[in-house]
Write a structure and sequence with these properties.
heterodimer, A: alpha/beta, Glycerol-3-phosphate (1)-acyltransferase, 7-stranded mixed β-sheet, 7 strands, B: mainly alpha, 12 helices, about 0% strand
Chain lengths: ~210, ~325
């Protein structure tokens, strides 16, 4: 049931809406088809980013892909939490660490061990438009704990212009989303992982 | 469904044009295919991609323009929409202009509705008169005056370029006074688009083969005197031969076709300069081989409204 709702929302509605009215172009999104489980990492400037990525995911396994969202921002009340769970398929994590025994990384690890895929914005927040800020350590822990899972870089070009931070009006603007090849990490040191991931996304930008 | 197809009444002249378009497309496809087999080069590759895009564009255009007036209006409205979107995507407007952009997009359905209803005067003054005042005032309402003159100039101009010119194509097929004089609006639309696009192609071909003396060296290196003169002459000839679509006499045909050729060149040059200012080669990557939508309809946006008014003048006289 959830799968049908998600396919309807993303594959039919958002994909066509973004392509025809907003002017989003998909590059290389076919490469996702052969990968069973992955962590998508992307630059983040707008709420449209999640919609753009979700709409590009093949409908076959869209119900197994979970965007990671901050509970303190998106899960303030029950209605919002239900909306996020069923319409965005999001996993809400606690950034505030009120409960010291519960690490948000553990939540993500648990999802990965259930054969789920994740969409992660390693910058942590929407940041300055058009600029990529440095990555948070969470991605590093995730890769260290699950080295066998493919990490796929995604670059969102100009998507933020359709809905900039703090604005409510969605406007058309030509933009593009590019999927890269899975990143090959040479070493699993924290700094190296973050550096390699950042470079992979920047490489997509310059293509 | 029947109702939609019943409204297709293809007069013999239009059937002829469809046949001519198909023959040209098949000829071009075969020509470049053989050329590619004999001596493959980058130019031929690009030509093949362009021809493929022409096939798709011709089919969309024929389908949209002949099947039903409502479909034509929606298709032309989308064309305006894509054009505006391309312009605004490149412009780097201020963030507070976003709410005004919404009203700019809103002009598209209004303008096409006016064309659909045939409110001729209102259609003519809506953008150049009303929007010319309303858009700057909306910009003033945003409360930020820094760089406001740039937005004030750009937004009305973009409306003229993207909506006003192209929407005359829509007025052409649905103009009561014209249709009552036994003139087929669809045939005139076909004539205008055929001549304008033929002009683009002819200028390109003449320029590629004989081009030596640059006509606008600082704007576009591809535009040459040879291409321009050859293009105008051959477009006039094509217009003369295609005259069976229009109610005009030979002298009027020659005058109108050469005017379209020159205006088409102007539109092309204007957009070339705009692109040069933006520092891009193409407006977007919407049409493979051609660039953006605006790269294709740039000449139409300058030819459509003069053509309409010339025809109107001649018929009313």
């Amino acid at each position: 049931m959830k799968k049908i709702i998600l396919i309807f929302i993303y594959t039919f509605f958002w994909r066509n809406f973004l392509r025809i009215l907003i002017g989003l172009r998909y590059y290389n999104n076919k490469s996702l088809k052969n990968i069973k489980q992955f962590i998508l990492i992307a630059n983040h400037n707008s709420h449209m980013d999640t919609m753009a990525i979700m709409s590009a995911i093949p409908s076959r396994f869209i119900h197994r892909v979970h965007p990671i969202a901050a509970r303190d921002f998106f899960g303030n009340n029950l209605f919002q939490r239900i909306l996020m769970r069923y319409l965005v398929n999001a996993t809400l994590i606690r950034r505030d660490r009120e409960d010291p025994n519960r690490d948000p990384i553990d939540d993500m690890n648990k999802m990965l061990s259930k054969k789920r895929s994740l969409i992660l914005f390693p910058e942590g927040t929407r940041g300055i438009p058009g600029l990529m800020s440095s990555f948070k350590a969470g991605l590093g822990y995730l890769v260290q704990n699950n080295p066998e899972i493919d990490v796929i870089p995604v670059y969102l070009n100009d998507v933020y212009k359709t809905l900039p931070k703090g604005k409510k009006l969605i406007l058309p603007n030509n933009c593009s989303i590019t999927f890269g090849e899975p990143i090959k990490f040479k070493s699993f040191e924290m700094a190296d992982i973050l550096d390699t991931a950042e470079k992979a996304i920047l490489k997509l930008k310059n293509n | 469904m029947n109702k939609i197809f019943n409204s297709i009444d293809l007069i013999p002249e239009i059937q002829w044009v469809i046949a001519i378009i198909l023959i040209i497309l098949v000829f071009a496809t075969v020509l470049f295919w053989i050329w590619n087999k004999l001596s493959p080069s980058k130019l031929v590759d690009e030509m093949q991609i362009r021809t493929r895009s022409w096939w798709i564009m011709c089919f969309i255009f024929l389908f949209a323009s002949l099947i039903n007036p409502v479909v034509t209006y929606i298709a032309l409205g989308l064309l305006s929409f894509f054009t505006l979107r391309e312009i605004y995507s490149l412009l780097n407007l201020r963030e507070m202009d976003r709410s005004v952009l919404f009203f700019c997009y809103l002009c598209i359905p209004i303008q096409y509705y006016l064309a659909f209803k045939g409110y001729y005067t209102l259609f003519l003054i809506f953008i150049p008169v009303f929007m010319f005042i309303i858009i700057p005032f909306l910009l003033v309402l945003t409360g930020e005056t820094k760089d406001i003159i740039r937005s004030m100039c750009i937004l009305p101009t973009s409306l003229m370029l993207g909506i006003f010119g192209i929407s005359h194509l829509a007025l052409l097929i649905n103009f009561p006074e014209m249709n009552s004089n036994g003139v087929s609006g669809k045939a005139l639309l076909l004539f205008l688009i055929f001549i304008t696009e033929a002009n683009d192609i002819m200028q390109f071909v003449w320029g590629k083969i004989f081009g030596k003396h640059k006509i606008l060296p600082n704007v576009s290196p591809n535009k040459t005197w040879e291409g321009f003169i050859g293009g105008v002459l051959s477009t006039t000839l094509i217009g003369y031969l295609m005259g069976f679509l229009t109610p005009l006499n030979p002298l009027q045909l020659i005058l109108i076709s050469s005017t379209i050729a020159i205006l088409g060149f102007m539109g092309d040059a204007i957009l070339s300069a705009v692109k040069r200012d933006f520092g891009v080669k193409d407006m977007s990557e919407a049409i493979p081989g051609h660039g953006g939508v605006l790269d294709r309809v740039d000449s139409l946006s300058t030819t459509a409204s003069p053509f309409f008014h010339l025809i109107y003048f001649i018929i009313i006289m």
